[in-house]
Amino acid sequence: MIKMLGVLLLCECLAGCGSSSATNLTGNWQFTIKSSATGNTYTGTASITQGGTVTSTGAGGLERMVTGTMNFANNPCATTAPMSGTVSGSSVILTVTEGVQPVSFTGSINAAFTAMSGDYAFPLGGCNSGDFGSWAASKS
After folding, report:
1. Contact 81, 70 (CB under 8 A)
2. Which residues lie below 8 Å from residue 59, measured CB to CB, with a gap of 6+?
């Protein structure tokens, strides 16, 4: 009995079996992005899928892979962009690639996985050269 319970708990932690869809990022999200460099606010939506691929962070934590697509309502540099990243505990790292320029979104997720927020930064060059600021998203 104890051995079976251990197997079930391991399954829950590693493969996500038995976990509810409310405890992952899979779903549709509404984003608001506020540039500290220009003062502009951009909005958009994202369709995110959290996969079952799990890797160890080396510090006893686990990372899950996420992929998706972000659609921008008022961004002059892109209307849609692919997204990839990782979730580890309450931390999220997303990379959105506008054209050929990747932008890093780092932040945290609430316990219910219905809201997340953080900071973003573009590298120098490209349409949004060096832009940085904050972002927030809510699951719809």
Report:
1. yes
2. none
Q: Sign of the C-alpha dihedral, residues 99, 47, 135, 53?
A: negative
pTM of the predicted protein model: 0.78
C-alpha Rg value of the chain to the nearest Å: 17
Q: Show me where the domains of the chain are located.
A: 21-139
pLDDT in tens, 106-134: 999 999 999 999 999 999 888 888 899 99
Q: Which CATH code for domain 21-139?
A: 2.40.128.120
The reported pLDDT for the residue numbered 17 is 41
Spell out the residues 6+ positions from residue 33 whose beta carbon is closer than 8 angstroms to its own. 41, 42, 43, 44, 120, 133, 134, 135
Half-sphere exposure of 107 (CA within 13 A, CB side): 22
